[in-house]
Design goal:
This protein is an alpha/beta fold. The protein has helices at 23-34, 79-95, 123-130, 132-136, 152-165, 177-183, 189-207, 223-230, 267-270, 278-288, 303-307, 309-321, 329-338; strands at 69-76, 101-105, 169-174, 213-215, 236-238, 247-250, 253-254, 258-259, 296-300, 325-326, 343-344, 346-350, 357-361.
């Protein structure tokens, strides 16, 4: 599949100039250009290109009248986030009558090994801004270092199953979240193949079926992971940040697993950035939800299902007040595929508020 231009539906305005973009979107995607562009970490297998000065979110043809909709992507990274965060989020979602897509980490919780990130640009600043100890808890931060790393699915299968029983979509996030996040480019193809196999086997054990979709830890992928993932016949994956659905190109070949990128900044990226309060973050994200765009908002059971649950409660309430409908990735999938998404290369970017790189649609 070659590159193609997005289709603009009749009645949808043309992209606005960069000056007309909401301030928060300029901060998230454009402002870094003023400082000389977003730095591309060294990687011999990835393309490098400047982040585009975006005038609007990419649009696609819709057969029905436009409406505001959002997909709530819930990443579950840790044992604590599984045991306590999932039930909290289920209560909040039930309160606001909204459905979400939950993606689980199944294997060892090696959260304590994330201390390796201390030398990563922006990591300490983010930890201070978000008060990481309060968000994740001291015990979680010792797993894999001072405490044995527990196998998450063996102690949290009931909570995972409760999410599906409540009507939410379920999928795969990780086997060993921290090892993948921190050491992806150092891992062999064999290690990564086992990582995927273990995650899919655990999903089958917990849910008795195959997953429809999977999303990678920290929006990170490379050629090897995209190729390995292709073998599982997923309907979609969410391994990138970006603006619109696309099919990834790897080594000149267009893969068949649709990528549904996360399009909106997250709470932990914006919180404390330039002094932002939780209420200010909510208002900025509400303002970014558009009726002519794919809106994917990622949250974490450890954050929005933990110390910042009241902030997320207010966020959901604000969505309802603004008439925004919550749709799972599975709900959105037929419409996205029918729009014939383009094939695109995948690059790497650094984005405000997040330490290290993320995979990005070109």
């Amino acid at each position: 599949m070659g590159r193609s231009s997005p289709v603009r539906a009749p009645g949808i305005p043309r992209p606005r100039s960069a000056e007309a973009i909401p301030h928060s979107l300029r901060v998230f995607l454009i402002a870094p250009l003023a400082a000389g562009g977003l730095r591309e970490p060294h990687s011999p297998v990835w393309t490098s290109a400047p982040c585009p000065a975006l005038g609007s979110r990419v649009q696609w043809e819709q057969k029905e009248s436009p409406m505001k909709a959002i997909s709530l992507r819930v990443d579950v990274d840790t044992l604590e986030g599984s045991v306590t965060g999932i039930p909290t989020l289920l209560r909040l979602l039930d309160k606001h009558q909204m459905r979400a897509s939950f993606y689980f980490s199944f294997g060892p919780d090696n959260s304590g090994k994330a201390i390796r990130r201390i030398f990563r640009k922006g990591f300490l600043a983010k930890m201070r801004r978000t008060n990481a100890t309060k968000l994740y808890g001291l015990k979680t931060m010792m797993y894999g270092v001072l405490l044995p790393a527990p196998i998450i699915w063996k102690r949290a299968a009931a909570e995972m199953q409760a999410a599906r029983a409540a009507g939410h979509e379920v999928g795969i996030h990780a086997w060993d979240h921290v090892q993948y996040h921190d050491l992806l480019d150092r891992k062999s193809r064999r290690w990564l193949a086992d990582w995927y196999a273990n995650a899919h086997e655990a999903f089958g054990t917990v849910f008795g079926e195959k997953p429809l979709g999977a999303v990678s830890p920290a929006w990170r992928c490379n050629d090897t992971t995209l190729e390995l993932q292709e073998a599982y016949g997923l309907a979609y994956a969410g391994d990138c940040r970006g603006l619109a659905p696309f099919y990834p190109i790897v080594k000149g070949k267009t893969l068949g697993t649709l990528q549904i990128p996360t399009t909106l900044p997250t709470l932990d990226e914006l919180l404390g950035l330039d002094g932002r309060t939780p209420d200010q973050v909510n208002r900025e994200v509400w303002d970014l939800v558009r009726e002519d765009a794919l809106n994917v908002y990622a949250l974490h059971t450890e954050v929005e299902g933990g110390a910042l649950f009241e902030t997320f409660d207010a966020f959901l309430g604000g969505l309802r007040e603004r008439g925004v409908q919550a749709r799972t990735h599975a709900d959105w999938l037929p419409e996205l595929k029918a729009a014939n998404p383009p094939a695109k290369e995948v690059s790497r970017r650094e984005i405000p508020g997040r330490a290290g790189w993320v995979s990005w649609e070109e």
